[in-house]
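# nightly structure sweep
# worker-07 picked up a monomer target from the shared queue
# config: single-sequence mode, recycle default, output format = C-alpha cells
# input follows
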Amino acid sequence: MATLYRKYRPNNWEEVVNQNHIKITLTQEIASGKTAHAYLFSGPRGVGKTTIARVLAKSINCEKREKNKYEPCCKCERCVEILANRSLDIIEIDAASHTGVDNVRENIIAAARVAPSRAKYKVFIIDEVHMLSISAFNALLKILEEPPENVIFILCTTEVHKIPATIISRCERFDFKRISVSDQVKKLSYIIRKENIKVSKEILESIARHSEGHMRDAESLLGQIIAIGGKEISLEEADLVIPRSDIKEAVNLLKLLQKKDAGAAIELVNKVIDEGVDLKRFIDDSIELIRKVMIIKINPSLTDKLGLEMGESLEMEVNKIVAMLELKQVLNFIEALLEARNKINTSFISQLPIEIAIAKVCIGTTPAVSSPASAPSPPLPRVNNPIPPNVKPNSLIPKNDNVNNANSNTNSNASVDINIDQKTIVSKWHEVLAKVKQHNHSLSFILRVCEPRDVNGNRVCLAFKYKFHKERISEHKIKILIQEVLKDVYGQNLLIDAIVDENIKANGNGNGASQAPVSTQTSADPISKEVKSGEKSNDAINNLLKTFGGKVVK
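# output follows
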C-alpha cells in the first residue's frame, strides 16, 4: 500500500502546494516553449523539489498539451509512462549512491549522447547532487554547458553551498521555501476528504506545526494518525502519535504574564513539569512565541517571514494578547526567560529559575511605561526639606487663588475647558521633545521636523513635510503617547491632528516648534522674570522649578 505522500503526490501544476514564485516562472517557460537546458532546485527536504521536476518533465513531453498551455493532460501515453516511472527518457539518478566520476560518465554523459527513444526530451533528474565528488562535478560541467539539443538536466539539492559555482552558473536556479501552516492544512484537509476520514482542524494545525514547513513530514504524520483506525480521529487518539506540543501552554503562560498573575503562572509551570514535559523545551516554545509577539509589535509585516506559524485558532488568541501588551513588557518577558533558561542546568530545583523570572516580571517590576507620567524623573538636587516619597508633585504647585484650584481640578477630571494658543504650544515644544525622547527616541526626531499650526479648542494641528511622518504620527499608540506628553507638559487634555504640507522647509534643526530654544527661557516663562538678566542660572534648579511650577524669590 502506497504511503499518503506517494499516493497524493501532485501530478500537475495546480496540485503543487505553495512555491508560487517557482510555478509562475516555469509554467510561463513551458507555455512559451522557452525552457532552459539546466535547472537547479535547492531548498529544504519535503517541499516539492523532485515533485516539480517530474511535473516539469511531464509537461514538456506531453503529447496532447494545448499550444500556449502548460498543464500536462496526464492521459496520453507519455504522461502515463512518466506517472508509472516506466519512461526510458526520464532518468532519475541518486547522486548519493553515484558519487564517482565513472558513474557520471556512464549514467549521464554517455546516456545524454543518445537521442530520446520515444519522448520529445530526455530529462535527467539528479537528486542530492551536492553528494557528487569534485571530479564528478568536473566531468558533468562540460555537458551542462553544451548539452545535446533534446536533453534537459534538473539538479536537486538540500545543500546548495556544496555545489561548485561553475555548476550553479550554468543552471537556472530556483530556491524552494518551507510551506506555511495554512497551506499544509489545506492539503491535509484535501487528503482526509479523499480518505473519507474526519479529523478536526485543530489536529491538522498541530500536524502542520510539527512538520516545520516540510509537506512530506506532515503527510507521513497524518498517515500514522489515520492508521489508528476509525472514521473519526479524536484529539486524544491523535496525541498518541503527534509529538507533544507545548505551544498551547506557552500561550496560556503568556496570558498569565500579561495579567501579572504570578501565582497561576507558577502553578502552570509546575503542572507542565508534572505531566512530563521537558522544561527546556517548554521555555524554548515560550521564548519563540514571545519573539513572534515582539516582531508583531515592531513591524507586523515581518511576521509572515520571521514569525512562528501556529495556525488560525492560536493566532487569534495571540493577536488578542498582543493588543494588551507594550513592547517594553515583551522585551522584559524575553530577557527574563532567556536568563532562566541559562540557569536551569545549575539549579538544584529545575523550575526555580523560571519561577523567579515569573515573579520578577509580575511582581518585582512595575508594569511597562504606557504614559509619560510614569517615566523616571531626573535626579533632584539636595534641599533642606526633602519631598516625602508619598507626596505627588502636583500637590507642591502653589495654589494662590480659586482659579488655580479650579485648573488643578479641571486637569484631574479631564475637563474640556481649554485655554491655550499656538504661541504657548511653541514655547514649550522643546519640553515635549525631551519627554517623548525618553519613551521613543525615533519619534522625537519626527516631531522635531514638524510645525505646530492652529489650536482649535483642545485639538492641536501638526504639519509634516512627508506623508510617512504623518502616517507614523497617526498610529493609535503613537498618538496616545504624544497626547499624554502634551497633557504632562501643558497641563491640559489636548488632542492632535496631523496634516501634510510639502512647503515646510525641513532641516536638521527642525522647523516651527523645533526652532524653539531648548536652554533659553522665553519671556512668558515665570522663572525668567525672577532671575536677573546676565546672571548665570543653575540648570538643576531651573529643571526643578519647571517641574513643580515654583519661582525664585529674591
